[in-house]
C-alpha cells in the first residue's frame, strides 16, 4: 500500500485515475486540485472515504505543496491547463501552472526524496504528415506547436533536468488523446456529443483531416500505474493504443451512434497552428513494462461514452452554455 498525492485529480484524466486506483489497488489517494473551470468535485463522488482525501489548492503554492508531498509516498502529477484553444487566447495560466507549478512540485519531491511521476502529452513532439510511416517514439525530438504543448514540453524538460542534476526519483509518460467519462465539454468528443443532445450540429475545424491517436482514459490509468510500479527512474514512456482516426470519421461515428445523418455537421474556422497528426509507438511500454491496452474497440468505447453523457447531463450541463459562447466568439 502506498500513499499517492494526485495533482489535478478533479479533472478529466486525473479523476479517472483516482477511480481506477481506488478500485484496483489498496493505495490511498490525496487529491490536490485548484478547481479551475476544468476541475469538478462531482467527478470524485462515490469514492471510499477511508482511503480518499481532497485538498483544494494551487500546485504553485510552495508551502501547501511542501506539507502534502512530505506526507505522500508517490506524487502523480496530472494538474495542468490542458486545452490548446484556450492557450491560443490566454497563454499566461499555462505558464503559471504547467511550468511554475511543476517546478514547485519537483522541488518539494527532491527535498523530501519522494517518487515522482510526471504526466505529459504526445503534443510535445509536434505533428506528423498524414502519410509518414514513422510514429512518435521516446527518441523523437521535441517540437511543440502551441502555447499549451510548449509549456508541457518545458515541464518535461524540467523533470529531466531535476533527475540528472538532483537525482529526482522521477519517470515521465507522454500519452495520446484520451476519451471517456468526465471529460470537459470544451474537448472534441464531449463537445460534439453534447451538441447533438442539444440539437446543435457538430463543429469540425478546417477540413477534418487531422488525425488523433485515441486511447480510453482507463488504459491511460493502467499504464501510469504500471510505470509507477515497474518504470526505470529517469526514463520516459510513450502511452498509446494504436487508435488513429481522423476528426471527420470520429464525428461521423458519433452521428451514427446518435441516430443522425452522417453529414449533419458544420465545418468551422480552423485552429491556428493546428497539428495535423499524432501517432504513438508504445513498443517500449509494452516490451519493458508488459502493459497492454484493454479498450481496443473504439466504436464500442464511443457508444459507452455517448451513453455516459446522456446519463450524466447534471454533470456537464452547467459548463455547456458558457463553453459554447466562448467558441462562438472565436467563430468555432
Ligand atoms: P483537465 O483540464 O480536464 O484537468 C486539469 C485539472 O487540473 C483540473 O481539475 C484543474 O482544476 C486542475 N488544475 C489546473 N491548474 C491547477 C493548479 N494550478 N493547481 C492545482 N490544480 C490545477 O485536464 P486533463 O485532460 O485531465 O489532463 C490532465 C493531464 O494529462 C495534463 O497534464 C495533460 O497535459 C495530460 N494529458 C492529457 C491528455 C488528454 O487527452 N486530455 C492526453 C495526454 C496527456
Ligand atoms: O494529444 C494529447 C492532447 O489531446 C492533450 O495533451 C490535450 O490536453 C488534449 O486537450 C488533447 O489535445 P487536442 O487539441 O488534440 O484535443 P481537442 O479535443 O481540443 O481536439 C481534438 C481534435 O479535434 C483536434 O484536431 C481539434 C479538433 N476539434 C476540436 C474541437 C473542440 C474540432 O474539429 N472541433 C472542435 O469543436
Automatic annotation (TrEMBL):
- Cofactor(s) demanded: NAD(+)
One short Pfam name that applies is: GDP_Man_Dehyd
The protein in question is named dTDP-glucose 4,6-dehydratase
- Which PANTHER family does the annotation name? DTDP-D-GLUCOSE 4,6-DEHYDRATASE-RELATED
| Family from the record | Belongs to the NAD(P)-dependent epimerase/dehydratase family. dTDP-glucose dehydratase subfamily.
What is the catalytic activity of this protein?
dTDP-alpha-D-glucose = dTDP-4-dehydro-6-deoxy-alpha-D-glucose + H2O
Give the top-rank taxon of the lineage listed in the UniProt record for this protein.
Bacteria
Q: Which organism is it from?
A: Pseudarthrobacter defluvii
Q: What is its EC number?
A: 4.2.1.46
**NAD(P)-binding domain location, by residue?**
5-304
Q: Which UniProt keywords apply?
A: Lyase, NAD
Q: Which GO terms describe its molecular function?
A: dTDP-glucose 4,6-dehydratase activity
Amino acid at each position: 500500500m502506498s500513499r499517492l498525492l494526485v495533482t489535478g485529480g478533479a479533472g478529466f484524466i486525473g479523476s479517472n485515475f483516482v477511480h481506477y486506483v481506488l478500485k484496483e489497488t489498496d493505495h490511498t489517494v490525496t487529491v490536490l486540485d485548484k478547481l479551475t473551470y476544468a476541475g469538478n468535485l462531482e467527478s470524485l463522488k462515490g469514492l471510499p472515504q477511508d482511503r480518499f482525501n481532497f485538498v483544494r489548492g494551487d500546485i504553485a503554492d510552495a508551502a501547501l505543496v511542501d506539507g502534502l508531498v512530505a506526507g505522500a509516498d508517490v506524487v502523480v502529477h496530472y494538474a495542468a491547463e490542458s486545452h490548446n484553444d484556450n492557450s491560443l487566447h490566454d497563454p499566461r495560466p499555462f505558464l503559471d501552472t504547467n511550468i511554475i507549478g511543476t517546478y514547485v512540485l519537483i522541488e518539494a519531491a527532491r527535498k523530501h526524496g519522494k517518487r515522482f511521476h510526471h504526466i505529459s502529452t504526445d503534443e510535445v513532439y509536434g505533428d506528423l504528415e498524414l502519410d509518414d510511416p514513422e510514429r512518435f517514439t521516446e527518441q523523437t525530438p521535441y517540437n511543440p506547436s502551441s502555447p499549451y504543448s510548449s509549456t508541457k514540453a518545458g515541464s518535461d524538460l524540467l523533470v529531466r533536468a531535476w533527475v540528472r542534476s538532483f537525482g529526482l526519483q522521477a519517470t515521465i509518460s507522454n500519452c495520446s488523446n484520451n476519451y471517456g467519462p468526465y471529460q470537459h465539454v470544451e474537448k472534441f468528443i464531449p463537445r460534439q456529443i453534447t451538441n447533438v443532445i442539444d440539437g446543435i450540429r457538430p463543429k469540425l475545424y478546417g477540413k477534418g483531416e487531422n488525425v488523433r491517436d485515441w486511447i480510453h482514459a482507463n488504459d491511460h490509468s493502467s499504464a501510469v500505474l504500471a510505470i509507477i510500479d515497474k518504470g526505470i527512474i529517469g526514463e520516459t514512456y510513450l502511452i498509446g493504443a494504436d487508435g488513429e482516426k481522423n476528426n471527420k470519421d470520429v464525428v461521423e461515428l458519433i452521428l451514427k451512434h446518435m441516430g443522425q445523418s452522417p453529414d449533419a455537421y458544420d465545418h468551422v474556422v480552423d485552429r491556428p497552428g493546428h497539428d495535423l497528426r499524432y501517432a504513438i509507438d508504445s513498443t517500449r511500454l509494452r516490451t519493458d513494462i508488459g502493459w497492454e491496452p484493454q479498450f481496443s474497440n473504439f466504436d464500442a468505447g464511443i457508444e459507452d461514452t455517448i451513453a455516459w453523457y446522456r446519463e450524466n447531463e447534471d454533470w456537464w450541463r452547467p459548463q455547456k452554455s458558457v463553453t459554447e459562447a466562448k467558441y462562438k466568439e472565436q467563430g468555432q
